[in-house]
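Figure 2 data, in text form.
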Amino acid sequence: MRKRGNEVHLNTEEVRSGSSPNIVRWVLGISLFLAIIALSAIWITGAISV
């Protein structure tokens, strides 16, 4: 935390009260990939059975 006159400047981790690891990006990417695979499998099996 830095003070310049009456202004207080905080960095990102101080404002969030924690760190921001990249694990969320991995979870979102993997879940998106799995959702695409699941919906494609449902669509393909439905098209084959008709």
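Caption note: Residues 23-49 form the longest helix (27 residues).
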